Amino acid sequence: MQPPQTSDLNLSSRILLGPGPSMVAPRVLRALSQPPVGHLDPEFLTIMAEVQELLRFVFQTENELTIPVSGTGSAGMEAALCNFIEPGDRVLVAVNGYFGERLVDMAGRYGAQVDRVDRPWGEVFTPEEIETALGEASYKLLAIVHAETSTGACQPDIEKIAAAAHRHDALLVLDTVTSLGGLPVEIDAWDVDVAYSGTQKAISCPPGLAPLTVGARARDVLANRQTPVANWYLDMTLVTKYWGSERTYHHTAPVNMNYALREALRMVAEEGLEARFARHRQHAETLWVGLEKLGLPPRAPEAYRLPTLTTPQLPEGLNEAAIRKQLLEEFNIEIAGGFGPLAGQIWRIGLMGFSARRENVTLLLAALKELL
Ligand SMILES: *Cc1c(COP(=O)(O)O)cnc(C)c1O
Fold this sequence. Notes:
- By secondary structure, this protein is an alpha/beta fold.
- The chain folds into 2 domains: about 15-20 and about 275-370, Aspartate Aminotransferase, domain 1 (Alpha-Beta Complex), CATH 3.90.1150.10; about 25-270, 3-Layer(aba) Sandwich (Aspartate Aminotransferase, domain 2), CATH 3.40.640.
- It is about 40% helix and about 15% strand.
- The protein has helices at about 25-30, 40-60, 75-80, 100-110, 125-135, 160-165, 185-190, 215-225, 235-245, 255-270, 275-295, 320-330, 360-370; strands spanning about 15, 65-70, 90-95, 115-120, 140-145, 145-150, 155, 170-175, 195, 210-215, 310, 335, 335, 345-350.
- The strands form 4 sheets. It has a 7-stranded mixed beta sheet, with helices on both faces. It has a 3-stranded antiparallel beta sheet with strand order 11-14-13, covered by helices on one side.
- Strand 8 (about 170-175), helix 7 and strand 9 (about 195) form a beta-alpha-beta unit.
- Helix 11 runs parallel beside helix 13 (about 360-370).
- The longest helix has 21 residues, at about 275-295.
């Protein structure tokens, strides 16, 4: 067999304003390209400890079990479900967009009896609705998405939803993939039992790790399982033996991704959470005003609109795919279309982490003005 013909990598440095990945700061890329060390090298053990400390800081938690799961955000989602679900357990999922649907799909695969409480895509839940849905059934777990990347809606009142779950003896699992690092996420103050995220959205690190944090209630559930965790790779009873003091080999940690995550999290810490959230908000507001002027008003009401992901409502008959293609080819800018029930109706414009900069907003608005 002949080797395939390929050429040297020469990628365009795109302006990434889609739903992820977001742009990555040069210092994070430099960290990523450091030489690998062994996954038990003393230098790497120090890096691991620092990554954990920094993750606790962004999650605003004291949870000891706070680690970057190997894999993208979806691996975090799997880990947040498979460790706490045993076959036959009842699980409630709040669904108001694509990632809620994915939670339903995953929970079912681990043998849960899944019930759902639905809202149309783009809307959010009231804590009362969730409490009613919890009803008399004994649910092991309630899962909900904080920042729905398919719709641009931010679920408010997580603290009240957590309290409702706990009144019904259920754990609260929270998807913070598009919120962590871009808007307030307060795991301890809100009393969230399990939360997961991804590195490539508002943390602005390449895709490949999934921050996960597990509180005391959820750790008890894990410790008292009757059956082994159905997913070997994501089994926290095993993975924690590597991240904990035993340092027992489980799988080779993606060492370079951990260098990069450490650097991206150091940037979050240096900026400060409040300043970082304010920056996301400020540039998002500029984007919203500009989109309104172009006749593309954000679809999510301002009361629960995400700063990290804006979903402009497109006028009927607009060839939205052609405009996105031109944005990419002529302006080097990536944005995304809608999908599911919102396909063709919205765009999805991300302003996350290192992408959330004034120059990017200005350029995008100018490009859209020209193309429309
Ligand atoms: C992106 C995303 C995920 C999945 O993350 P991947 O890194 O694509 O695996 C899960 N939930 C939400 C809300 C997301 O935006």
